[in-house]
Every structure is written in C-alpha cells, then in structure tokens.
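Researcher: Sequence of DUF309 domain-containing protein follows. Predict its structure.
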Amino acid sequence: MSETMPQEFWQGVEQFNSRQFYACHDTLEALWIEASEPEKSFYQGILQIAVALYHLGNRNWRGSVILLGEGSNRLRRYPSNYGGIDVDELLSESVALLKTLQQIGADKITAASDLDEQEALTLPKILLTNN
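Model: Prediction complete. Tokens:
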C-alpha cells in the first residue's frame, strides 16, 4: 500500500474489488469532497467507474456507459502507476467493458436475468502496484 494514500482510499479499493460499488462510491466521495488536485480527480475517476458498475448491476445501461466513459477519461491524465494502483490496467478493463456494453446495447442488458451469466461482461478490478 502507498504511504501517500489515506486508509479510506484502500477501504474503497477493497470495496470496489469485492463488488460493493455503492459503498465504494460513498467511501471515495468522502475523500473526493475534501481532496485537492491531483488526488481529487483521481478519486473522482475511480468512483465514477464504481457508480457505472453499480448502474450496470441495476440494468441501467445508459448510466453505466456514461460513467464508464467519464471515469476512464478522467483517469487517462494519470501515469501508469499512481497512488499505489495500476491505472493502466483499470483503464484497459474499463474501456473494454465500455466497448462491450456499446456493442451489446441497452436492450440486452435490461433483459438479462443475471449479469454474471453474460460471459462477455468482465468487470474491472483495481490492481495494486509495488510502487
């Protein structure tokens, strides 16, 4: 873990990786409100991706696609490894999911009985770095 990132950040990462996306949003939003740049936009990018995944779980295709795009675009400003996480991997997985969702379309998402059964949907994970 990075010494520069607060404990709440790591709690949010843990929540993200265990698919507790709403809790992750709450945790990171509390940090985001108090943060200054460059951390402020970093937190916001991750929490937007978390909310996108929350929307996806609720079959809200439009909300998911919009926030995946916004969160990914925000994180593009950061180096490959930032704050102790692998930003490139999170971006790569988020963009891949966004492209898949755009190809699948809203109708297939809203009609899905279980999103985990959709083999094409791989949800992003936040990987830690050694830096």
